[in-house]
Amino acid sequence: MSNENDRLRPNVCILLYNAERKLLLGERLGEAGHWQFPQGGIDKPDTPERAVVREIYEELGVEEHLLGRIEALNVTHTYLWDTVPDYAVGRWIGQAQTFWSVEFLGADTDIVLERHDTPEFQAWQWCSSFAVEQIAAEKRRDGYKKALRAFEATVERVDSGKS
Fold first, then answer.
1. What pLDDT, on the 0 to 100 scale, is given for residue 1?
2. Is the pLDDT of residue 63 over 90?
3. Which residues, in sequence order, are CB contacts of 156 under 8 Å at separation 6+?
4. Which pLDDT belongs to residue 163?
5. Tell me, what's the pLDDT at 156?
6. How far, rounded to the nearest angstrom, does the alpha carbon of residue 122 sit from its chain's CA centroid?
7. Given pLDDT bands bounded at 50, 70 and 90, which one contains residue 2?
8. For 37-82, where are the E strands, in sequence order?
9. How far is 47 from 146, CA to CA, in rounded Å?
10. How many other C-beta atoms can be found within 10 angstroms of the C-beta atom of residue 122?
11. Which of 17, 117, 123, 130 has the smallest CB count inside 10 Å?
12. How far is 142 from 44, CA to CA, in rounded Å?
């Protein structure tokens, strides 16, 4: 017999940051005002790191050579879907997220939401950690709080040269 955790889709949630240490939030296509971090499932045989790179390319059109430091944050978040998406029916009931900080080395023009046939986002913006907590879709905020604190600690450590 499987438990609920076996029915949670492994997922990566990405805190992509620029040189100013601002984070990218995307507004979901067709859902005005629903701002979130890029995220996606970990498909076999991908490692979580490969899923991070793939999701950044699929959702933001950003090529791997424009990514710098990729670091797992020691934060997880699980949640059940309000409505199970079609692709998950009979397989998953929610997601188990791991969070990743990823350095963006490119220019804003390197972010191309329409690179693929079905864009995930209709708009994007750079935000401070504080702004993320104000702007992100309400249902995502609780899951983001610990990740934002871990991100700030990571950036502080990197900027002070301790890593």
1. 40
2. yes
3. none
4. 63
5. 86
6. 16
7. low
8. 39-41, 67-80
9. 23
10. 15
11. 117
12. 28
